[in-house]
Amino acid sequence: MIRAQPVAVSVEGLTKAYGTIRALDGVSLTVGAGEIYGLLGPNGAGKTTLIRSLVGLVNPDAGTVTVLGRRLPDRTVLAEVGYMPQAPALYADLTVEENVRFFASVHDLDRRTGAQSAVDALELVDLTSRRRSVVATLSGGMRQRVSLACALVHRPRLLLLDEPTVGVDPQLRAELWQRFTTMSGEGTTIIVSSHVMDEAERCGRLGLVRFGRMLAEGTSAELRRLAGVERLEDAFLVLSESKS
Amino acid sequence: MNGRRAGAISLRILQQFRHDRRTLMLLFGAPIILLGLFYFLTGGGSSLPAVDVVNLDRGPLGAVLAADLGRSTEISVTPTTEAQAASDLSADTVAAYVVLPADLSARALSDDVIAPTVHLEGTQPALTQPVLLALDQSVTRASRSLAAAEGMRVPALEPSLDYLHGGPGLDTLDYFGGAFIGLVVFLLVFVVTIIAFLRERSQGTLERLMASPLRRADIVVGYIGGFMVVAAVQAVEVVVFTLYALHVHDQGNVALIVLLTLLMTLVAVNLGIFLSMFATTEFQAVQFIPLAIVPQVLLSGIVFPVATEPGWLQVVSRILPLTYGVDGLRDVMLKGNGLTSGPLLVDIAVVVVFAVALIAAATATLRRSAS
Predict the structure, then answer these.
(1) In which domain, by residue range, is B191 found?
(2) Taking residues B237-259, what's their average pLDDT?
(3) Residue B188 and residue B142 share a domain
């Protein structure tokens, strides 16, 4: 069912400047298939630019991005990638279901498969009962969940989530992470940015990004050991300080 | 009322203006541009309607009258033969031609009547008026000087009018109806598309589409498809209402009117997508109405005939799609032209070229939106 894919994402020396601001400054990164990789870092560190680079939304000044074996820019690979932007980008005047089915269609799912996948995706984010609600009437957290459903409705092999659980209550957040873990077990690669530490603990590996650079990489335990502290949050602070 | 609080709002508004240079340019630039256009269109430096004069008079009056018409400040006169004048009129290079008949002087003496024949193009009331006015002024001057010299009574001007198209049976609504069909549809579809596409950008869904396998052409063609369904219904509604509820005169094929209207909406959709690239907020998008639409309305010949604009403005008119849409609609509705008519085919072809160019431009602007 899922082709063996040792490396899902490979980024080398990625650099991007906006004017005088260096959003990415020679970032390199390798994520294996089925991994959950967490990008940690303060606001403006370059996490979002890095994630956007992986779907071809950023024209890099230097460096290469290879996604699912294909060197970007290459639009064909995007059918197998799901991208959830930071702000819930949805059609506010459409219903929840219409939004999800639209994104199923643009990712090449036919009508019937799309309809079934939309049902599954809404089930996953626990919005089945609100599927006929117009998005404009939903709360921020619900919109975030619709946005997530839109990103995974076509069952992508690579899922890119830019702060997916902002505004989502703790109970649902735990459930979502349960599903992420299940998906990763089924072979889906997930790259997720966050600054919520209990989420970071659930990632297989973490990358600490600051000033557009990859400061440190490793499992939560490795990062804590490297910083010589007990809690990941402290490790984050120590490592950010020492390298900046 | 609290002065400090109200003052905070005033200050904040001024700060917002300072950050929005586009709006400032609009507020201070657009009035100059629009009023300037009005100046040039309503007379300041504008071109005079071209009129041929054919003098067949065997007496002296015809020559005097033709010479006086030549000095008119209302029209620009060329003396020529009747055959040439008739062909100029049907080729639309003159607004009218005046024939001073062989018995002009004789009838002025015997019947006290000056009876030239005025052949009018007839589809542009704004061109008809100056011709009749110039003729009236010249007849008054010429006959008065003759009367003074030869001691005869001042004859009355009784021109007979001959219309190539339209004629006295048409009213103002008939002249403007066709042009307004094009304008109304163009304006509404443009505004709706530019806002819809801008929303696609500002709510982040365009970025999401860019992160999907969709190609830029898919997005543009998809937009065209969606809007054209609505535009087709609108076009039929507008045409039916204009022709059957308002009883606007139509000489031509109704299907051609709908076709031209649809072509105009195709241009409007793509102009909307293209210009949405240059707006970051719906506020700025709305500003394209005075900047991109009002000058087109003034310059497209709807109210002010293109032929009487100053030469450089005629060049501008000739690069605006609405000019050709309006011209085509008038060709069909007032002249009854069909697909065998050269000028109508040119109008249709030009609108199609605009549509294709704007589709390409709209697709290209999408490329620029990936950073």
Answers:
(1) 172-368
(2) 88
(3) no
Same domain (yes/no): B224, B296: yes
Q: Which residue has the higher pLDDT, A170 or B166?
A: A170
Q: Residue A2: which pLDDT band, with cuts at 50, 70 and 90?
A: very low
* Interface check A21 vs B, CB under 8 A: no
CA torsion sign, A123 to A125 to A126 to A129?
negative
Name the minimum distance, in Å, from the CA of A227 to any CA of chain B: 36
Q: Are residues B178 and B260 in the same domain?
A: yes
Domain boundary among B135, B163, B191: B163
Statement to judge: residues B141 and B183 lie in one domain: no
Beta bridge partners of B119: B97, B162
Closest Cα of chain B to A89: distance in Å? Answer: 5
Say yes or no: B195 and B116 in one domain: no
3-state DSSP call for residue B20?
A: coil
By CA distance, what is B209's nearest residue in A? A106
- For residue A31, being part of any structural domain is answered with yes
CA of B199 vs chain A CAs: smallest distance (Å): 9
Q: Which domain holds residue A45?
A: 7-87+158-243
The domain that holds B151 is classified in CATH as 3.40.1710.10
Does B4 reside within a domain? Answer: no
* pLDDT, tens digit (0-9, with 9 covering 90-100), for B4-42: 888 899 999 899 888 888 888 888 888 888 888 888 887
Q: Does A90 touch chain B (CB under 8 A)?
A: yes
Is B292 contained in some domain?
A: yes
pLDDT at B150 (0 to 100): 67
Q: B301, B323 in Cβ contact below 8 A?
A: yes
Give chain A's mean pLDDT: 87
Q: How many domains does chain B have?
A: 2
Query: Per the domain annotation, does B192 fall within a domain?
Result: yes
Asked if B144 contacts B114 with a C-beta cutoff of 8 angstroms, the reply is no
What does the alpha-carbon distance between residue A55 and residue B339 come to, in Å, rounded to a whole number? 49
Helix (H/G/I), strand (E/B), else coil: A56: coil
CA distance B251 to B257: 11
Nearest C-alpha of chain A: how many angstroms from B213? Answer: 5
- Asked if the model's pLDDT at residue B265 lies above 80, the reply is yes
User: What's the confidence (pLDDT) of residue A134?
Assistant: 95
Point out which residues pair with A206 in neighbouring strands.
A38, A218
The count of structural domains within chain A is 1
Q: For tokens 């609100």, name the residue.
A: A130
Query: Beta strand pairing status for B117-120 and B76-79?
Result: unpaired
Residue of A nearest to B212 (CA): A78
Secondary structure (3-state) at A188 = coil
Same domain, B143 and B176: no
Scanning B181-240 for CB atoms below 8 A from A yields 203-205, 207-215
d(CA B351, CA B334): 19
Q: Which chain A positions have a beta carbon within 8 Å of B209's beta carbon? A: 106
B78-112 pLDDT, tens digit each: 888 888 988 888 888 888 898 988 888 888 878 88
ipTM rounded to 2 decimals: 0.88
Q: Does A75 reside within a domain?
A: yes
B210 → closest Cβ in A18, A57, A91:
A57
Q: Helix or strand or coil: residue A208? A: strand
Which of B163, B211, B198 is closest to B371 using CA atoms? B211
